[in-house]
Amino acid sequence: MEEIILPDILAFVWDEGNSTKSWVKHKVSTKEQEQAFFDKHKRAFKDSDHSQKEERFLLFGKTKKGRRLIIAFTIRNEKIRCISARPMNRKEVPIYEKAA
Fold first, then answer.
1. Which of 17, 24, 32 is nearest to 71 (CA)?
2. Phi, psi for 33 (deg, rounded to 5)
3. N or C: fewer beta carbons within 10 Å in the chain?
4. What is the mean pLDDT of residues 84-97?
């Protein structure tokens, strides 16, 4: 995976499709997803396996409550659009921990 540097986050964009999907599947709220982007130890990577019409990325980050998440997202008009979010599994935690 190719690591990237995220641009300064100006805003998030949420629509009906992406605002509830992660809550229903994994109990990850939109607030938690936004918090992970402000984690000083976050890591972001290109997700070329899932990029089609637009470039997708994966963020490994931690919430204020210490919950480690993986968030699939894209950037549209300088805004972050989260596609899905879930807790990291035990194999993914070391990827995040390398940054801490």
1. 32
2. -60, -45
3. C
4. 94
Neighbours of 19 (CB within 10 A): 15
Cα–Cα dist 64/29, whole Å: 13
For the chain, the structural domain boundaries read 3-97
- Give counts: helices (H), strands (E), the chain: 3, 6
The answer to whether residue 51 scores a pLDDT higher than 80 is no
Q: Look at residues 40, 37, 39 and name the one whose alpha carbon lies nearest to residue 81.
A: 37
pTM: 0.89
Taking alpha carbons only, the member of 51, 55, 57 closest to residue 70 is 57
